[in-house]
Amino acid sequence: MHKILAWGLAFLLAAQSVAALAADASAGRKKAQQCAVCHGIDGVAKRPDAPNIGGESSMYLTKQLEAFRSGERHHEEMSIIASGLSDEDIADLAAWYSSLQFEVHMPQ
């Protein structure tokens, strides 16, 4: 049973790695122009009701965009925007926003 679970996990990780390799962060940056009004091109939200998405994992971003596209998640604007995204668009956008890096500095 443990071998089956281990093989399944290995398969899922390999599939995720292949998808990540196919994604194009540069293309995602261009596609992110439509996202910039709310989320910023740098992933830092420009509106108080939009989340910061820069630096989030590509797996998380992909899952959320797919959920908006399928109707599993609903938001007045995101559901409409995501409905027009292809799998390639989602992969590219996730690659772009996950490639952004942030530093956290603790107060002294």
How much helix is in the residues? 55-70%
Largest sheet: none
Based on CA inertia axes, which overall geometry fits?
globular
First and last CA, distance: 50 Å
Task: Give start-end ranges of low-pLDDT stretches.
Answer: none
Kindly provide the radius of gyration, computed on alpha-carbon positions and rounded to a whole number of angstroms. Answer: 16 Å
The total count of helices amounts to 6
Strand content: under 5%
Order of SSEs: HHHHHH
Mean pLDDT: 89
Instruction: Give the beta-strand count.
Output: 0
What is the oligomer described by this structure? single chain
Structural class of the secondary elements?
mainly alpha
List keywords for this structure.
108 residues; mainly alpha
